TrEMBL record:
Protein name: Pirin family protein
Lineage start: Bacteria, Bacillati, Actinomycetota, Actinomycetes, Kitasatosporales
Binding positions for Fe cation per the UniProt entry: H78, H80, H122, E124
Cofactor dependence: Fe cation
Renumbered residue ranges of the record's region Disordered: 301-322
GO MF term list: metal ion binding
Similarity-based family: Belongs to the pirin family.
Length: 322
């Protein structure tokens, strides 16, 4: 999924200075963003006060939206560089096309993982014949400097490991490892992503890594995370230093657990690119505008996205918080 903003702000992220070494409960406020003609998303990262969680640097939550009589998601071909995109659905389907020739329908609880590396382009759309509801999350993972120039790739994993925590808790491991169960998805930094389901009446403790920082995104229901009740579409930053996370739900609920080793490098994120300097971003924008490097997406019925103008001042990497 793309950042479709034609006046995208510069997000300067990374570095360990803003990492909270102790457990905290920091509620992040979402920003509503129009995505294409018919989809509104709640943008939770980058946030005014919190830019990254581990290598996770971008989180959009959308739906549940009734698209029975609507086209649904329609995101034209656009570029990415220096990151991985993670597509995660609870309802609906998304048809992925990319400049490698990939054509894949991603369905609920299946992992669509695209590694842009040095350059890739893709589109995402609801199939013409689609389910009546669309509900999911789109997330980006920043690639470390040693791997941000890797060859682009796309992975689709329909069968992911599930951890049964007892007491009504189950966790699908999207990336990384939870309680000994590892996702087949490729990662380049120590991180974890899990979809956690809580049945009504659940009280459980989910094991986590004390050296990771974590955040929880509420997908549905109103679960309590470390004693704090969260509304759907909200994100709670938890800091580091935990070995387990208390969870409780009076009604059926679903959460996404995102975490990882704090990302030490400082990065520049602008539009759909992640680099380390203004020149990295400017070069990528020029390559997309000139039709080089990113390839072509075939089969999408419509024009590709044009790159917005760069801001008038040079882009500079800074820390994790503002």
């Amino acid at each position: 999924m793309s950042n479709l903003d034609q006046r995208p702000p510069v997000a300067t992220c990374g570095g360990r200075a803003g990492v909270t070494a102790e457990p905290v409960r920091e509620l992040l406020k979402a920003k509503d963003v129009q995505l294409g003609e018919s989809t509104v998303v709640r943008r939770l990262l980058p946030n005014l006060g919190r830019r990254m969680v581990g290598a996770w640097c971008f989180v959009d939550h959308y739906g549940p939206d009734d698209i029975a009589d609507e086209p649904g998601m329609q995101v034209p071909p656009h570029p990415h560089m220096g990151l991985q995109t993670v597509s995660w659905l609870h309802d609906g389907e998304v048809l992925h096309r990319d400049s490698l020739g990939s054509l894949q329908t991603v369905r609920p609880r299946e992992l669509g993982l695209m590694t842009s590396g040095r350059a890739i382009a893709h589109s995402e759309e609801s199939p013409r014949a689609h389910a009546p509801l669309l509900h999911g999350a789109q997330l980006w993972v920043a690639l470390p400097d040693a791997h941000r120039g890797v060859e682009p790739s796309f992975e689709h994993h329909a069968g992911l490991p599930v951890v049964a925590g007892g007491g009504g808790l189950s966790a699908t491991v999207i990336l990384g490892e939870v309680d000994g169960a590892a996702s087949p998805g490729t990662t380049y930094t120590p991180l974890v992503g899990a979809d956690v389901s809580l049945a009504a009446g659940t009280e459980a403790r989910l094991p986590v890594e004390p050296d990771f920082e974590y955040a929880v995104l509420t997908m549905s229901g109103e679960a309590e995370v470390d004693g704090l009740r969260l509304a759907p579409g909200s994100m709670l930053y938890l800091g580091c230093g935990r070995r387990e996370l208390p969870l409780r739900a009076d009604t059926d609920s679903a959460l996404m657990l995102l975490g990882g080793e704090p990302f030490a490098e400082e990065i520049v994120m602008w539009w759909n690119f992640i680099g380390r300097s203004h020149d990295d971003i400017a070069r990528a924008r020029e390559d997309w505008a000139s039709g080089s490097r990113f390839g072509e997406v075939h089969g999408y019925d419509g024009d590709r996205l044009a790159a917005p103008a760069l801001p008038p001042t040079p882009l500079k990497p800074r820390g994790r918080t503002r």
